[in-house]
Amino acid sequence: MTDQDRVRISFIGAGGICEQRHLPNLQQIPGIELVAVCNRSRESGQRAQQKWGFARVETEWQKGIDDPAVDAIFVGTWPYLHRELSIAALNAGKHVFCQARLSMDWAEARQMVAAAQAQPQLVNMVCPSPFRVRWERTIKQLLASGRLGELQTVSVESTSFANGNPNQVSWREERELSGLNIMQVGIFAETIQAWCGEYQSLAATTAIPLREKTTAAGEKQLIQIPQIVSLSGMLSSGAICREYHSGLAIGSERSEITLFGSRGTCVANLREGRITLASGTSPHDQTLLDETGDPWRVEQEFIDAVRAARRGEAWQVSPDFAAGSRYMLKMQALHDSATQLRTVKLSEY
Predict the structure, then answer these.
(1) CA-to-CA distance for 237 and 198, rounded, in angstroms?
(2) Where is each GFO/IDH/MocA-like oxidoreductase domain found (predicted)?
């Protein structure tokens, strides 16, 4: 392993998906050095250091970014810090991998895109939707093959009881930490845009039936992020799209994207992990297209891009900040539609 191939990485926020996916997968890639970790507390950072082998623990994130020995920064915090950390890292000459969702809102996303475009020699990547990684090739091949026919309607069903505990408040339910992001709406936004195109216009209705919850400290907290979302609109392809998301669905765990075409209907059952195509008149006339999907290679894709950038070669990741910003545009439009009680054209932004 040459020094040209060695990539030195620092993490700012190393919990959640960082421990589930990013760190285990990075450890499998030759030439990776974990330099520093900065978590919300020194104790948390020390646990991460002991578990994953970071060289040191920082209590100030600026030190990891300013370190000339660091090549890349993984931003694993909640969305409220994504813009500040990502822009600071890019300005310091670091490649950046940012955990999803990209930012708090559309304005922040645009600032992150501008910072990335000002440093084209630096890789910028957002963690992609796991649905995209696993199933995108199968879906795009189906759409290109003509077996589905002309895409007419897209339907999304995402329901769980994740928000239903009145005595539990997740960071995802705090506007100050999560911004305009809502449950898994952003994950589906990215997936639908990649598979079927962006919304041209949309109308959204949101609700917060469980308005007040009790925190772990026993304090009452007003919930501001919607627990139910219903939206519909027109995609750039001309297909109609309707979505229903709920975090208060008792006994209903669903995660599906259905593509209705002129020659068939494709159901992507994301919870059970299978893609089927119905092309006959009988509901039993279904073909199993895929129940395996593609492997998760996100960390390898980022490292490959960093090494290519070092050699002065063109690099490519999916999504980069520019692509990731497009689902934040949808989240902004959804918010504006629901709060202003109107249909929103995305060309307004």
Answers:
(1) 8
(2) 137-265
**61 SS3 class:** helix
Note whether 57 and 87 are same-domain residues.
yes
Domain check: are 41 and 151 in the same one?
A: no
Q: Tell me: the pLDDT tens digits for 92-118? A: 999 999 999 999 999 999 999 999 999
DSSP class of residue 146 equals: T
- The CA distance from 319 to 133, in Å, is 11
Is the domain of 265 the same as that of 184? yes
- Tokens read off for 82: 């994504």
Least confident of 30-39, 72-81, 113-122, 274-283: 274-283
Here the CATH number for the domain that contains residue 80 is 3.40.50.720
Distance CA 76, CA 99 (A): 5
User: What pTM was computed for the model?
Assistant: 0.96
pLDDT per position as a tens digit, 318-341: 999 999 999 999 999 999 999 999
* Upstream peptide bond of 128 is cis (omega within 30 degrees of 0): no
Question: How far are the Cα atoms of 229, 249, 318, 337 from residue 209, in angstroms, in the given order?
Answer: 11, 12, 36, 19
CA distances from 32 to 25, 50, 57, 67, 177 (A): 10, 17, 17, 16, 30
What residue has token string 């509901």? Answer: 283
Element of type H or E holding 278: strand 274-278
On whether both 11 and 121 belong to a single domain, the answer is yes
Residues shown for the chain: 349
Retrieve residue 242's tokens: 């309707």
Give the confidence band of 283 by pLDDT, cuts at 50, 70, 90.
Answer: low
State yes or no: pLDDT of 284 exceeds 90.
Answer: no
